[in-house]
Amino acid sequence: MTSTATVPRLAGDHTLAFLRQGYTFISQHCDALATDRFRTRILLRPVLCARGSGAARMFYGGNHFTRTQGAMPPTVLRLLQDKGSVQQLDGSAHRHRKALFIDLLMNETATAEITEAFRDAWREAMAGWARRPFVVLLDEAYLILTRSVCRWMGLPENGRSDPAMARALSDMVEQAGSIGPAVLRALWRRRKVEHDIARLVTQIREGRADIAQDAPVRVIARHCDEAGTPLSVEDATVEILNVLRPVAAVARYVMFAALALHQHPQIAATLAGAPRERRIAFAEEVRRLYPFFPLVGGKVKAPFTWDGHTFDAGDWVLLDLYGTNHDPRRFADPDVFMLDRAISWRDQGFDFIPHGGGDATTDHRCPGEQFTVSIMAEATRLLLDEMSYTVPPQDLTVALDRMPAKPESGLRIADVMPHRAAHHPSL
Ligand code: HEM
Hints:
It is built from 15 helices and eleven strands. By secondary structure, it is an alpha+beta fold. It has a single domain (9-422), classed as CATH 1.10.630.10. The strands form three sheets. Strands 1-2-3-9-6-4 form a six-stranded mixed β-sheet. A three-stranded antiparallel β-sheet has the order 5-11-10. A two-stranded antiparallel sheet has the order 7-8. Strand 2 (37-42) and strand 3 (45-51) form a beta hairpin. Helix 11 (233-263) packs parallel to helix 15. It is globular, with a radius of gyration of 21 Å. Protoporphyrin IX containing FE binds next to helix 5, helix 11 and helix 15.
């Protein structure tokens, strides 16, 4: 790694420190060194760690990085993305594949559809919650979102097990930061789901699947690359999973939204019966404040210089998403929950980056933010306006050394009572 003296270096390998400090690893070292970037070793490899909007612009804005082999540990890659996915592509091939996701996801119609599917599945599930002593909201949200996204995608009901699919999708997310047998179980479940989806892709291509013409699953199964060649069955499968898994993963933000309502009753009171814009603002602040993706990794494609520092091809860089969302230079009192920060996925900039930075159509920024925020806002409405419940005593600490983070209980709620009269269609 070619470098200048402007980037401090932490001697030794910091893998254990990274696992111990988790979300705050980069920020703690940056604070201690009075810098926004430092060099060290993780997994024995040299790496440059950076935080802040300038670093995010460097990472996302200039098309300097690839996510191919070595950008992330292999099990993280296999569980959260995979070889052949849009995230692994660069340049014009990336933009062409990305357009598929942008067209499917980033529009008002699709957003209203997934939100309605979510609301319907929530109401179906909620009827059963009243009969149980308590429910674990994270688990329930995974199941509800799995059902919603399978319906929205147009996956056939016949032979589908939403609980089994929910377990497989949640495992991919929950175990992405783990090592050991839990990862093997998650990978095994992923293979089983992949096998079923691959079969469906083949049936669609052979005209044997009873699926609506405009169903998103059919659109992906029939997608062609720039040269007009259909994707391989494996790549089409990976991309179908690339919608199923992250929509299910919104469960974590649904849980954090409920946690925020519990931790800030005065804010919750202002949101009951509130218009959608207020609930959207709430959802955005939950995304800023609560931990999900700690960081992203990339490998330099070709040498370039940034702020006096020269990168060589192959250099490894980790961008701190969590620390950037908590940067006090951009967000006053960054650990305080505030509804009026006027932050939005619509800005597509570099300072509010829970789902990555830059322009989703051209950079690697997530195409699923609009879905995520809309689902979270609807979850907030359902929690406040369509049911009552209590939060029994439990440890609600969100330890930042577990990635992805959550309260250990997954947030138990009890005494659920659906408000039957409240079934109005306002999204
Ligand atoms: C649950 C909350 C979500 C979080 C925290 C999240 C986070 C992220 C992040 C950080 C990236 C950038 C990765 C990088 O720079 O390499 C990303 C990319 C991506 N996300 Fe999301 N995401 C979420 C929801 C969604 C949803 C709902 C969808 C689809 C329906 C989705 C689909 C994707 C895809 C396809 C990419 C790859 C984009 C590319 O490489 O161009 N995500 N996401």
